[in-house]
Structures are given as C-alpha cells and as structure tokens.
Amino acid sequence: MPETGSWQVRWQSAQRSARAAGDAALRRWRAAPRRTRQTWRLTAVSAATGLAVAGGAVAVSGPWDAGQRTAERAAAAGSGSGSGGERHGASTDPVRSAPPVLSALGGSAPGGPGRAGAPLPTGAGLAEVLAPLLKDPALGPLRTASVRDVAAGREVFGVRADEPATPASTVKLAVAVAALSALGPDHRIATTVVDGTGKSGKAGKAGQAGEARDGGDAGDTGKHRIILVGGGDPTLTARAPKPGPAADRPANLRTLAEDTARALKQRGMTTVTLGYDTSAYSGPDQHPIGPNENIAPVSALMADEARLDDSEFGTAPRDAAPAVAAARAFAGQLRERGITVDGDPAAAHAPRQAGEIATVRSLPLAALVERMLTHSDNDIAEGLARQTAIAAGKPASFAGAGTAVRDALAARHLPLTGAVFADGSGLDRDDRVSAGLLSRLLLDASSDRHPELRSVVTGLPVAGFTGTLSGRYPDKSSGAGTVRAKTGTLTGVNTLAGTVVDADGRQLVFAFMTSGTTDPQGAQKALDTLASAVAECGCR
C-alpha cells in the first residue's frame, strides 16, 4: 500500500472536519423552530442575492443564465403585472427586496432539492397539515391535490389526484412541456419576406377568410410583389425597441422592414406590392369563447398580440384581423424607408421555393415559455400549442394543437387519463387535466435529468413579487418569495401549481385544483394558504 503523503493527511483531516461541521449544522437546523428555519432560509437567500448582484456588475455570463434570458429575468422581477387569464388584474405594487430576486433567478434555498441529509416528508405529516386546509369552505365541491418530492421523484401526498378537473391557465404548463419536448428550448420562430413575383397563390385560407376579405387579393399587377410570411411568432412586435441588448429583444417588424428595404434597393427595386401569408395556421382563428379582451384571433401573423392600446400583458381591446393590421404596419415601415408600397396589403400564398428577401426570428422558445408562464399570456400559449402541432406534422388548429400536445406528453409517459386539451390557453372550459398530471409536469421540469424543461420552472411567477402572483401574497405572508406557481382562474374555477423548498430543505412540487367556487378571492386565498403550508412544513 503506498505511503500516504502529508497533503493527503491534511485533505482527509479537512474532509472529516467539514463533515463534522455539516452534521452539527444539520442538527441545529432540525432542532430549530420552523419559523426560525424560515428566517434562516430567507437570510441566506438575501446574502446569496447580494453576491449575485455584485458578481453581475463585474462579469457578463452570457445571454442565458439558469435557463432564462437575463433581460427577461430582469423584466420579470420588475414587472409586477398580472395578466392573461380571466380576472388577472395588473398590479402597481413596487418591486420588493432581495429574497424573491434569487427565486426569479431560479435559485433555491439552503439545503437544495434532494440534499442527502434533508428528511423526506411523509404522507401522514403532509396530511396532518393540508387535510384541514382542504376543508376551507371557500373551496368548491371538487377539491384535488398532489404533492411530489423532486429528489425522490414520487408523490408524497394526494387527494383525488388522478381525477380530471378544469385547469384554467395551469394547462399552460402542459403546453410548455409539450412545446419544449417537440421543438427544444433553442427553437426560434421565423417571420419572413419572400419574393412573390412568381405564380400567385390563392388568397386566404380556411379559418382566415375574414382577413382575406379585408385585405383583398394581391393578384398579379405586373409590379414586383413581396409577401410577408407569418411563421406564428406570438411575440412579434411593431413597436420601437426598448433599451437593452438587441439579443434579448423580440423580433421586430421595424428590423424586418429595414432589412427588406436594404435588400430591395440593392436589387434596384423601390416600388412593390405587398401580400401576406398566414397559411402556417389552419382552422378557425377565433377562440371558442368568441371575441374577448383576454385573447386575439389566433393568426400566424400578428404584431403586439393585436393589441389596440400600448399594453404588453393582460386584457386589452384587440384588432379583429391581426394579419391585416400587421401587414399594414409593415407596409408603413417600408414606406418610411424609401420603398413605395402600391395599394393595401392583400392576403396571398407565397410561391413554393420563393426566394427569401429578409427574415427575423423570435427569442428562443425557452424565453417565450417563461413569458407565457410569468404573465399567463394566452396569445403565446395558443401560439406554442400550434407550433407543437407544426413540429408533429399535424394541422395547426385548435384540434390539431390539442392532439399534438397530448401526443408530446404521452411520449414522456405522463398520466393522461381523462386529459382534454381543447385549447392552449386554458380559457376553454372543456379542458381537463388532473392534479397528478400538473405535479408530474413540474416534477420533470424541476429534475436535473431534463434541462430542456428548465424554463418551465424559471418562468413561474414568484409569490408576492412577479407576474400573476405579484398581488396575491401580501407583505410578511409566509409564502411570499418562497412559493413559485402558475395560477389558473375562471369563474368558478381556481387552480395553483408550482414548487417550493420546504422547511427541511426538500424541493417539492404541488398542484391544488378546485371547481364550483363562489368566492373567487376566498378560493385564491385558500390555495395560497395551502402552498404556503407546504413551504413552511417539515412534515414528517
């Protein structure tokens, strides 16, 4: 046996000392009251946040960090806007202090998921805490729940966890996982201008007939024709870019017009006619709920979610013909850059093998998922469901998207008994998922084995600080800054599904669903109390 060197002796001694110190710290952690442990966790998070902020001032870690774009993350931490689903009102509360900042970064409290010394919660321990809370009279007749331990990978508490229920906006978790599985987190959606001088396709298509009638037929006028081809980017904008790195901005029609005008001038062309192609999507463009300020008609070509005001999230009046509006905005941008556009833009199909003139691409799919979940953005959700359908070779319609989402989840061996995906946004009351499915989606997204799903976790609103949870946890609430969850709200339906680190340092995912509620505020508070109880619990 070789002789042990002095450096090895010192190393082994240091290891023994570190283990002893760690064991002592763990004993103190377990012996401390739960409230004291919560304080220690928040203090540690605040300290870590200070180090992160200081480090960020002197080093650039690249456009991505922990699965989330740095600019998107900063916007999420500072937005305070509710949005998207029914009754998600915007918040004007100021951004609060350090603990939630690390949550927005995707960090975790001391102990981390699956720390070897952290005890696994028991079903009996969780039932003792959660069962009385599930009897809250503010909850509806149907009450389902599922809590899973991330490190153990199994359910530790469940109540009717396999029973399908109306998910409202928590169905967006299923859409996010399906889209990321089908396309990957780095996928970008293109909006393209092509040469349309060749044989003209027929204007319009099923489901877009209203837009075709508004725009007319591009026809063959003898002038050079270009066609704006929508690829389904739900974050395409026509507004002036915001300050910040260009790589963190959504695709912009202004950029596309600049590149198109330059290319046309290089070819000696300064007068064109403009067509627009929405054929990437099919079927009805109107959501089954009808015209509604929660969602625009679903089109493969639209800018700023067809909003008729300057809002970015939440409810807003919408243009009834998003593609027409986007094409007209693009024509205006071309004119500002010295290109004469004869007549109004008209619906058309791009010729096969049409030559590309210019292209802009969306932010990576992971960034779109984060934005969708943080703000419960219905337009992004419907767009990503259709992108999933396109990837699967299915019709990019409500029906085709629902089939594609289900197939993508089935390929991951997720529990889909009774599941129905009637839309991507959760506005359709025919949607059905179980609490067990929601918790499994979050389990996969939280696992180190599935880094492609990381944005599902980093996009979750932080309780009391960001997105649709910004106004739901008041100051000093036990769950503020520690609960991260996707909300779901329709009249009579309240759901909440997310992740916490419990008082013992175990990462848990949860889903709580209720239907038939008559007190929406009371039901929301009851669900928030359940999530906070999971966070505070060291349930053994």
Automatic annotation (TrEMBL):
Basic and acidic residues composition-biased segments: 211-222
InterPro entries noted in UniProt: Beta-lactam/transpept-like, Peptidase_S13
GO MF annotation terms: serine-type D-Ala-D-Ala carboxypeptidase activity
Gene3D superfamilies, alphabetized: DD-peptidase/beta-lactamase superfamily (3.40.710.10)
Keyword Protease: yes
Top-level lineage group: Bacteria
Protein name: D-alanyl-D-alanine carboxypeptidase/D-alanyl-D-alanine-endopeptidase
Name of the gene encoding the protein in the UniProt record: dacB
